[in-house]
Amino acid sequence: MCFVLLASGGLAYWWLHQPLWTGAQALELAIEPGATARAVAREVVAAGARTDARLLYAWFRFSGQGRAIKAGNYEIPPGTTPIALLQKLVRGEEALRTLTLVEGWNWRQLRQALARQEQLRPDSAALDDGALMAQIGRPGVAPEGRFFPDTYTYAKGSSDLALLRRALHAMDRQLQAAWAMRAADTPLQSAEQALILASIVEKETGRASDRSQIAGVFANRLRAGMLLQTDPTVIYGLGEKFDGNLRRRDLQADTPWNTYTRAGLPPTPIAMPGKAALLAAVRPEATRALYFVAKGDGGSHFSASLQEHNRAVNRYQRGP
């Protein structure tokens, strides 16, 4: 064998510690499931490594770890030696990328982010929402708000459906954990309602310190049978028709998500809520407030009466 010959000539040690590649960019290596050590050695050389595939194969065999090489997508950085390469392949240290799902994103924004993501196989691109949800194990469920906002790592070339499945299960866990901590006097009837309310709280919160009190206002309104009258639900119902300016006619245009025209919670979440919004929805701050208005500095002014609220609106929204 080539490696034995090298060893007998005293060259093995030297070769094992020489870089396989000294270029400026990392080499990209894809190893298919079931690939033999010989096939892997050939793929390494085909990727651009400056060595003999027979030497690599001999090293894999001589090490006794040739059969432990794991399939996957790898990057071989400049300076990688045969020893370091084999360690990487045996450990399965694949090349990873990250995608951050942002709190408050809606489903349309999430799909756009998936489409832009580098090295993520777009298996969901040809699927409508129903088919996509069926593929990840949640048939008949609307996708809005079902994915937990977090940073996810993935191997190059992996499926976007696999990433979505992980985010879906993460939201399942976070929602159930929050629901288990719900206040005894919550007006919410189910974890599903908690998810919907949390999505509204997420979109209404400009300052983190206001989040629990905003949730408290909505809880009070639900208990009293009042309309929620929250602009983000109206905007969501308008979809791509929304041009950034919410008008009086928009508030009067009935959609399933218009909480000015329909009582109770909307039929689905309107965005992806984070952990803090989930907890605020199930354990809101005890408050007498029934109204709030944005002050223009990220925070909100809270009022217990309509008269006080109207004064706050005149002050913060309409000006002097």
Describe the structure.
The protein has 14 helices and eight strands. Helix content is 45%, strand content 10%. It starts with a helix and ends with a helix. The relative contact order is 0.10. Helix 9 (191-204) packs across helix 10 (211-224). With 320 residues, the chain is mostly helical. The strands form four sheets. The protein has a two-stranded antiparallel ribbon. It has a two-stranded antiparallel ribbon with strand order 3-5. A two-stranded parallel ribbon has the order 4-6. It has helices at residues 2-8, 12-16, 37-47, 53-63, 82-91, 107-116, 129-135, 160-180, 191-204, 211-224, 231-238, 248-252, 275-282, 306-318; strands at residues 27-31, 72-76, 96-100, 120-121, 151-155, 158-159, 291-294, 300-303.
Using only C-alpha atoms, the radius of gyration works out to 28 Å
Let me know the number of strands.
8
Question: What is the overall number of helices?
Answer: 14
Helix content: 40-55%
Q: Major sheet: order of its strands?
A: 1-2
**SSE succession:** HHEHHEHEHEHEEHHHHHHEEH
Q: For this entry, what is the oligomeric state of its chains?
A: single chain
What's the main sheet like? 2 strands, antiparallel
What fraction of residues sit in β-strands? Answer: 5-15%
Distance between the termini: 90 Å
Whole-number mean pLDDT: 93
Morphology call = elongated
Category from helices, strands and their pairing: mainly alpha
